[in-house]
Amino acid sequence: MYIYLSLISALGWGISPILDKLVLQDIDYLAFTPMKLFTRGMFGIILGIIFRKKIRENIKNNKINIKNLLIILASGTISFLAALTYYKAISLDNGYMLNIAIISHILPIVVIGVLSSIIFKRKITYKMIIGMIITFIGIYITIKNTPK
After folding, report:
1. Distance between CA atoms of 8 and 5, rounded to whole angstroms?
2. Can you give the pTM of this predicted structure?
């Protein structure tokens, strides 16, 4: 099941930047970002209403506590700053979409691998290191061979 959900997610992550770039050709990224985040927020409110029983249950079971709220706040802040810089990158005339997508969607795999090994005590195998090196090489080759 997670494979299908991941494929749907990948499709969304692939289509969304193209739509964003279309809009960002006419609108400044600082005007676009609040509208995009407002749209996400509306879906968040709808989900909150739909799953309010689950939310209450998690609060009752002390799963939603100060520690988790601070982590959510940190995650939201980091993803907001990431979105802001991402939208600025794709709004630039010289912002080549393939390079932006490769850097912003593939490079996090390396970051996740390293951070999960530190935070969750996961072992990084030599095959994972080889994969990370190949990732860097692939990003370099793609960016180096981008038509100007």
Report:
1. 5
2. 0.80
